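haha ok so turns out i had the wrong file open the whole time. this is the CORRECT one, sorry everyone. sequence first:
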Amino acid sequence: MFVYSLKANTLKFFGVLSLALVALITLIAFLPSGTPDIAVSAKENDAKGKTVSISYGKIKSNEDIVKFLAQFGWEVGEKPLEIKEVIIPAEFDKVFAPYNEIQKSQGLDLGKYKKKKLTRYTYEVTNYDGYEGKVLANILVYRNKVVGGDICSADSDGFLQGFEK
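then structure:
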């Protein structure tokens, strides 16, 4: 009797263990990755009041970044001036906090990417009206998605704005 109950408990134990393993594998397969994600596209209104869809995803090449900026009406050089890996700080200081507010105003939030390594692409903007100096477009990309960026002057006393013209 003792041996029989041991075998039954052993079978039940391995059965429950197998079901738990199957459930765990299923959860891992269907849950998104542990990294925060942003919407792949957003809807914006253009100058004429029409709704325009802006795509922030599928950034895999230089041409994809140029097309991304063109959605906002920016023309940039064919090649980036600089490609650099940057790490978003764990705590935002008095410089980075206002920069993140600009990101939030355009529907992005770098707070989701604290301690993450991003790639920053910097391009020269060739069609910025009303400013004589050098204008740059900075694009922050994480896992083939634009997660932040700005249009700014290269001068220290210049300007800094979001992607919208």
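The chain is about 30% helix and 25% strand.
again sry for the mixup
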